Amino acid sequence: MSELPFPVTELTMEQQFKIAALMGDIEKAPPEAQLEACHHLLKYNFILKNTVNRLLGSYAPDTTGADLSEERPSS
Fold first, then answer.
1. What is the model's pTM?
2. What is the pLDDT of residue 21?
């Protein structure tokens, strides 16, 4: 089984631009709309987390009790 790739932890330039544009819209929105946007973002974050957990659970072997302190070998 091949190793899992390292996660991507940076945004693309396009994603950074979209965030900046959305932040401008959110700052202008009424508090109710801001709260609704926050609620939806939290919901989608949890959905993404569940999806990634399911994907990793079906892809990676069970590592319960495994010593994960060792460094990964470089390719």
1. 0.59
2. 96
